[in-house]
Amino acid sequence: MARRVRVSQGEARRIALGAQGFDRARPQSATDVRHFRRVMAAIGVLQLDFVNVLIPAHFLMIWSRLGAYDRKRFEHFLYHSGEHTEQWAHEASIVASSDWALLEHRRQAYSPWKSSPLHRMPNYEAYLGEVLRHVDENGATTANDLPAVEGPKRKAGDWHRSIPRWGLEHHFGTGKLAVQRRLKNFQRVYDRPERILNTADHTRSMSKTDAHRELLRNASVSLGIATGHDLADYYRMKIADITPRVEELVEEGALSPVSVDGWKETAFLSVGAKLPKRISGASLLSPFDPVVWFRPRAMRLFDFEYRIEIYVPAAKRRWGYYVLPFRVNDRIVARVDLKANRQASVLEVQKAHLESCGERDDTAGALAKELAAIADWLQLDSIRIKKASAFEKALAALL
Question: Least crowded by CB within 10 Å, which of 63, 142, 147, 200?
Answer without folding.
Answer: 147
